[in-house]
Hints:
The structure holds 2 protein chains of 2 kinds. By secondary structure, chain A is mainly β. Chain A has strands spanning 4-7, 10-14, 19-25, 33-38, 45-50, 56-59, 62-67, 72-77, 86-92, 101-102, 106-111. Chain A has no helices and 11 strands. By secondary structure, chain B is mainly β. Chain B starts with a strand and ends with a strand. Chains A and B meet through β5 and β10 of A and β4, β5 and β10 of B.
Amino acid sequence: QQQVKQSPQSLIVQKGGISIINCAYENTAFDYFPWYQQFPGKGPALLIAIRPDVSEKKEGRFTISFNKSAKQFSLHIMDSQPGDSATYFCAALGDNAGKSTFGDGTTLTVKP
Amino acid sequence: EAQVTQNPRYLITVTGKKLTVTCSQNMNHEYMSWYRQDPGLGLRQIYYSMNVEVTDKGDVPEGYKVSRKEKRNFPLILESPSPNQTSLYFCASSWYGSGDTQYFGPGTRLTVL
């Protein structure tokens, strides 16, 4: 059973547009929801994360929206830039101190 | 510089030939973990370690072994590699567990013929 479902698998956005990536989880014990960004040839790096005590977290152009009742969260990239072109992974964590459950990833391409 | 290092970065081997991928971190992190990344399957956890001498299975542990004899090192061992283990492998570390920021290494691309 896939515990974190991420969509879409790929996304093409024009420069200046809004990119939206969605994730849904099953386990209500999860309490930490990070997004990782991965550039080609590199390892993933933490972009932004949220805990369920807030519904939204914003860092610059990146915002996480969190809907606890729907067990969904999403990443919004405002004013998308070509430099944002990367693969994005969501994760749902916290039910087990060691286990990590990631989504399948979304490849974002921002066209100039 | 705080970092996670992996060696080798690229490896081509043949079925059945034992290999080890090393992972080392210089941040004094308690937690370390191995992942494999395959197209369309995201990051899948192989094994993790909460501390020295403490390791546990992730979601896809079959065909892999790990050990954590020192805090900084967490090698991944493939005793008898098979073609279905061809993948991109990442090591990661964090202060206390998966619910903390994980710092990933640069990856090891393994091809098993």
